[in-house]
Amino acid sequence: MFGPVQAMLAAHLLIRERRLMTHHYLACDLGADSGRLMLGSLDEQRLALEELHRFPNSPAKLNGSLCWDIPRLLEELKAGLKKAAKRGLSIASISCDSWGVDYLLYNSKWELIPPTYHYRDARCQRGVERVRSKVDWNTVFDETGIQFMPLNTIYQLAAETPDRLGRAQRLLCIGDGFNFYLSGAAKAEVSLASTTQLYNPRTKTWSKRLIDALDLPIGLFPDIAPSGTRLGALKPELARETGLPAIQVVATCSHDTGAAVAAVPASGTDWAYLSSGTWSLIGVELAEPIITPACRDLNFTNEIGYGSSVRLLKNIIGLWLVQECRRHWAKESKPYDFASLERLAAAAPPFVSLINPADARFLAPDDMPAKIASYCREHQQPVPTDVGATVRCIYESLALLYRRTLLNVEKLIGRKIARLHIVGGGSKDSLLNQFSANALQIPVIAGPVEATAAGNVLIQAITLGHLPSLEAARQVVRHSMAGTTIQPEATAQWEQAYGRFEKLLVN
């Protein structure tokens, strides 16, 4: 029988054992440019991430339409699962996240109905016109709190043919479709559902008013699940084929931005975030949506985050501009990596030309340098003369648009923002980070780069009881992935440039 000393020693050993216990999770992070399967390993205070499998994700033209190759992506996920099984680790769970708005359609046999359209496909404009003919914009915003973008799911669905919709039994957004592939549970996780512009954040249900107005079958839309829902075990056939045991499948934040914001290493309430990648999503985390005429007129969006939080944000074009320029230069046999582009931009003269990155011409792919040149000519500015000048023009313009956006955030929430956390792949770009601090005149904290995968893994840990709360998860990020703080510089130059930039927004 234990005495007091032995009992105390046993208790200390148990605590130490728990602290040393490491949990392993898988995160499938699907981006609009690439996908990867990540291994997350967590002890009580540290999170380590390892890329197990990466694969390209590029749209292709099919009968004149821009589409995703979903069967290939599912095979890539399966290949990643086989690699994970070979590691021989005790894996607790897996979850998939993806970009928003795009969706999969399934027939009555739960087979995919091809094709899966890309949000940049030209059909979206046809959908916008159909929606406008049936329901006014004020009603759409009042029902959803989501900004107008022609690529939103509501407009894509309005562009569908009656034949395809007639054959469709269920709709799942991309991340939810991949979780369905893993588990067999067809649920609409709320953060991803909120990107469709068919979800009502007040009632926390699908908007029957909009669904009825557009003559969409209500049965098309699955049950909505909160962020951090256990969907069940990995399907037996997938477990057998990949060599994994029946690990849990979790719907974390199926929207990649929702997952990324969960991993922002912030505390307090005076901060904003920028999820920087192909898109720049910039905003704040709130307890309730702001669905007001002012929010509608400023074209902000109220997406749902972990724990029913609201991400009041603006979804604006981001490093897509650089990515498309880089693709064009590669076609001309001028390949540049991103580090080289950053160096060339740093060496270029400042503030020669500025663009409004939100101009509609920049949404579509192909020959982005020519589009930038055309914009500069139309606005009586010098055309960028070389690669460095073009990239610097993009970086400076993005930073100034971030300033404009955060000023509008402050108007909507009635308080000042003291610091900006930049997360995601774009947080590696030190020049753009410095420009952002200069334009905003507040400190910028850059990192983590792998915010989406980190948020995905940490929400799994909370769901399984391995972490107690979101605050504890953010503390893990602070301990594990130290960010870099950038202080603002060159105030007078950037103030003058902002005056020039504002004039572009009203022309």
Structure description:
The chain is of the alpha+beta class. The protein folds into two domains: 21-251, Nucleotidyltransferase, domain 5 (2-Layer Sandwich); 264-447 and 468-507, ATPase, nucleotide binding domain (Nucleotidyltransferase, domain 5). Helices cover 43% and strands 21% of the residues. It contains 20 helices and 22 strands. The strands form six sheets. It has a seven-stranded mixed sheet with strand order 18-19-17-16-20-21-22, sandwiched between helices. A hairpin with a 2-residue loop joins strand 4 (60-62) and strand 5 (65-68). It is globular, with a radius of gyration of 23 Å. Mean pLDDT is 95; it is low at 10-19.
Condensed summary:
A hairpin with a 4-residue loop joins strand 11 and strand 12. The protein is of the alpha+beta class.
- Content-based structural category: alpha+beta
Amino-to-carboxy terminus distance: 84 Å
What's the overall average pLDDT, rounded?
A: 95
Tell me how many strands there are: 22
Kindly report the spatial arrangement of strands forming the biggest sheet. 18-19-17-16-20-21-22
Provide the helix percentage: 40-55%
Tally of separate domains? 2
Percent range for β-strand residues:
15-25%
Gyration radius from CA atoms, angstroms: 23 Å
CATH level-4 homologous superfamily of the largest domain: ATPase, nucleotide binding domain
Gross CATH architecture of the largest domain: 2-Layer Sandwich
What is the fold named in CATH at topology level of the largest domain?
Answer: Nucleotidyltransferase, domain 5
Shape: globular
Main beta sheet: strand number and arrangement?
A: 7 strands, mixed
Count up the helices.
20
